[in-house]
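Subject: Predicted fold for MMS19 nucleotide excision repair protein, 179 residues

User T.R. writes:
Posting the sequence so we have a shared reference for the thread.
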Amino acid sequence: GGEVSELVYCMADVQVRPIVLNKKIERVPPSPLNPKTLPFECFSAADAETLSPDDFDNHVGAVQQSLSDKTSIGDKLNVLAHIERLCQSPPLCDALAASELSLTLVRIMRRSKSPQLRARVAHVVGLLVRHTSLLSVDLQGGGLVVALTEGVRDREVRVRRPSMAALGELLFYVASQED
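User M.O. replies:
I've generated the structure tokens; pasting them so everyone works from the same file.
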């Protein structure tokens, strides 16, 4: 009796591991970032943490503006690489997830025709969900689940994988919340 339970039970079963950027699942190379072509000042996560709340809000507004429909896909990918670097900081993730930028990311994921852009947005959303302590009600109601499930059903595997990882992070977030 006890021998079977020892075989079935494994310490790894009770350890929580991230899905996004988990090297045991998939190696995701860092996105190339060219700070010189960004239409705003490029901050590291550590430098962005030292900004005043107003300065950080202004920076997020500039980042969001640079993701507008008029921006080329290459420039949007560069902006997303900058956001990825900001996502290294949980406090910054909290601020980004609570901002309009998160809704803009969901909108891009749902509307973009570019698989490369949809995949990168799904990856960034996964990082946001993984590192944030609170997802805003606006984001939850803003189509995040729908965008990620659409990404999981995408024809392109490069969109499906980060969408599934982000959806997994979101499901873990939801399951770990208290009523």
